[in-house]
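Late entry, adenosine-5'-triphosphate complex.
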Amino acid sequence: MILDVKSLTKKYKGVNRELTVLEDVSFQVEAGEILSIVGPSGSGKTTLLGLCAGLDKPSSGSVQLCGSEISGLSEDEKAEIRNKKVGFIFQNFQLLPTLTAIENVTIPLEIQGKAKGASDKAKELLTRVGLGDRLTHYPSQLSGGEQQRVSLARAFSNEPEILFADEPTGNLDDDTSHMVEDLLFTLNKEKGTTLIIVTHDMELAQKTDRIIKLRGGHIVSDEKISSPEVVENHG
Ligand SMILES: Nc1ncnc2c1ncn2[C@@H]1O[C@H](COP(=O)(O)OP(=O)(O)OP(=O)(O)O)[C@@H](O)[C@H]1O
Ligand SMILES: [Mg+2]
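Prediction complete; structure with ligand written out below:
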């Protein structure tokens, strides 16, 4: 099991009342699984991903990620796991504005002391997401969808064991969405990368192994998708 989430609750302190954003959320994910998380805006999807990846702390409950109980780890230890084993595609991309596309993608490799060959690898990844001719553009010189694809290339660069993707196709046209989907599924097939994908796109969700539905901070359903039968029509 690569992710074990137990009774997660997240509350924010408001001015005169507490806001419960997630309540008693539990689920487990096996290595190699492709899970989608769906639910209305404000239901807690991004919050949940942040807690699972150790980017944020729960009010109560626990998360075991890649064999470590993350609440017991120091910030440095968490960063180490994230650098080595986890990829994250943020809903708002979070590219570094002062770095070019290729520099944004090489950053995780440089942090790990893998600077050698990093540029070639970043170039290959950016080419795969259709940005081979945008390598030296800064984020401000890229469209929203292009920034999203840079953030995807960055998340792939350290070959993570588990990839959290927050609406990875949210800003993309149909063709580019399909390209991104193919890349994600190929990563899973070739490297066994576990994928946790937040999406509003039910067509994408139906292509994953399992769908968790969130509503008002609760899991309202958790269903395995039966593998699509190949129906051949010999009409
Ligand atoms: N730092 C914060 N302080 C207070 N409330 C917050 C904070 N972050 C998120 N929230 C609230 O938590 C709720 C869940 O937010 P979250 O971003 O997880 O939703 P979401 O399901 O990802 O929505 P969307 O589909 O719009 O991205 C929202 O109502 C939001 O206003
Ligand atoms: Mg969100």
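Residues 12, 19, 21, 39, 41-47, 91 surround adenosine-5'-triphosphate (ligand 1) (CB under 6 Å). Will revisit in the morning.
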